Amino acid sequence: MRMLITGGAGCIGSELAEALIQQGHEVLVYDNLSSGSVAHLDALIGMENFKFVEADLLDVGTLQSHLQGVEFVWHLAANPDIKFKPGEATDKDLQQNTVATYNVLECMRRNGVTALAFASTSAVYGIPKQLPISEDHPCRPISLYGASKLACEGLISAFQNLFDWRCFIFRFANIVGSKMRKRGGTVITDFVGKLQTNPERLEILGNGNQAKSYLLCRECIDAMLFAVTKSSERLAIYNIGCHDSLSVERISEIVEQTMGLHHVRHEYTGTEGGWPGDVPRFILAPEKLNRLGWRALHNSEQAVVEAVRFVVQRQSVSCKQ
Amino acid sequence: MRMLITGGAGCIGSELAEALIQQGHEVLVYDNLSSGSVAHLDALIGMENFKFVEADLLDVGTLQSHLQGVEFVWHLAANPDIKFKPGEATDKDLQQNTVATYNVLECMRRNGVTALAFASTSAVYGIPKQLPISEDHPCRPISLYGASKLACEGLISAFQNLFDWRCFIFRFANIVGSKMRKRGGTVITDFVGKLQTNPERLEILGNGNQAKSYLLCRECIDAMLFAVTKSSERLAIYNIGCHDSLSVERISEIVEQTMGLHHVRHEYTGTEGGWPGDVPRFILAPEKLNRLGWRALHNSEQAVVEAVRFVVQRQSVSCKQ
């Protein structure tokens, strides 16, 4: 199939591109390089079935022309930084996520493209009423990022119904892996960076009791490819994660151990969440995907241990919160 | 309090304005008159505590200046037509509902306004998994209108959390009442209009088995005012409706009876929903609002009978789907 990946130069997108090329698909990566990197695509550039376009999703004309003949869209592009900092514009996520997604959907419609997979997030749920969080849990996002992703989901749900498309919405846990991303960095890059600067003291955002689900990037891609092949729903919504969570405190221990540091003094900013809009504790229920036949091979701790090793050894880091 | 009502020249907004003035509040109606009418405000214009501004929510400068000193915003403005017609722009709801709502929230933030009530809709739920639909039911909108309202809810949820506001989200059943609105007309105005043209034949959109919850406009306003006074939640989400539904077939009988017509030939377009994006059957569970202490006095049939009487007698009609 001829496939287009938005955000295909990112951590997840570039590994997905490799997997799809290996499966024999023709892949077009569409990325504005605002957080992705051409270096992620080194293994693919020059291959016959691969093409890279540097362009923005807000540039509708370019987007529309590149959707001609496409059969399946993987829409992964987004402003990846979930943190809202006072003083920043409040419409960053509205523009780069919601409006950009509308553009993708509308350009698909104009080109007769009828199949889409979308990278959503655990952040659509907000503060969970109960753990673990199933796909039917109410969505009350507490961040502008989560709100924009929920808006995208609603648009996809409407387009799917109105034009009889086939759509997949994947709500990701925290995805960690081998590729670098400084912008919107994860807790792992935050800790490694701080300890490289000062190995005696570590500032921890929040009270350290935050605990979230982590999944390796290659497992995330495996899960998506599995769901797209096996699910028969016309609008398929899946949590993608493992069955447990890992505390920020424990992550700091793993980082220090991997870096060979002892007696690091911890200082806490003290709030329940790490930043405004942070959901302090969540576990995504993976049962729906488990029932379909896919299960994560690594739990949160194993995923983080592997990701930390990458970061520390190669100083090249992890992906998407 | 000093209150601003967006969409305050509409059916619901104008009755709300009257109620708030009666309670002693200072009311500013902000409306672009795209579907509202100044005539709805006849009883208020000239009053000391009342002011009307004809302006658009996409005009951020005007909006921002009118939010100075406001203490509470009732955000009711929206593109009221849930129907998407092939050939129409697909971003009408995105612009007029989602982006407009973002503008309201951002201008509130800049002016230090921290309290909001928002008119949402049963359409956020999509096709219900079970009836009646509680507030925790998953939201999978099947219309662009529903998607845009869900996006607004997400934005409100995020702003509420980030800036510690107090927000109310009211998910309306089909609201019917005494005031006219041709654009995005309800099934009642549709039937009355068609039968005035040809009293022997009635085209019914769908198969006639669609069945929805109806509520009188004055009861809707009563419910909102009650919830705003009594609820202590910082983000309060309430269905506003009665406990039952009424079929389109039965509405056609009520209209014909009220108009004194007999032996009208019914013709059906035949689809399950009346139009693309129509949710054929829903009942909003009103239990959360009931527990707070408010209960509708009219069921769906009583509400429709009263609204039909208005439409037929005065040729002035009902409100919001």
Averaged pLDDT of chain A, please?
94
Biggest sheet: strand arrangement of chain A: 3-2-1-4-5-6-11
- End-to-end Cα distance of chain A: 30 Å
How many distinct domains of chain A? 2
Radius of gyration of chain A: 19 Å
Give an account of the 3D structure.
2 copies of one chain form a homodimer. Chain A is of the alpha/beta class and 321 residues long. Chain A folds into 2 domains: 2-175 and 215-240, NAD(P)-binding Rossmann-like Domain (Rossmann fold, 3-Layer(aba) Sandwich), CATH 3.40.50.720; 178-213 and 244-284 and 298-314, UDP-galactose 4-epimerase, domain 1. The first copy, chain A, is built from 9 helices and 13 strands. A 7-stranded parallel sheet of chain A has the order 3-2-1-4-5-6-11, sandwiched between helices. Chain A has a two-stranded parallel ribbon with strand order 7-10. Chain A has a two-stranded parallel ribbon with strand order 8-13. In chain A, strand 1, helix 1 (11-22) and strand 2 (26-31) form a beta-alpha-beta unit. In chain A, helix 3 (92-111) packs parallel to helix 4 (144-163) and helix 5 (187-197) crosses helix 7 (248-259). Chain A is globular and about 60 Å long. At the A-B interface, helix 3 and helix 4 of A face helix 3 and helix 4 of B.
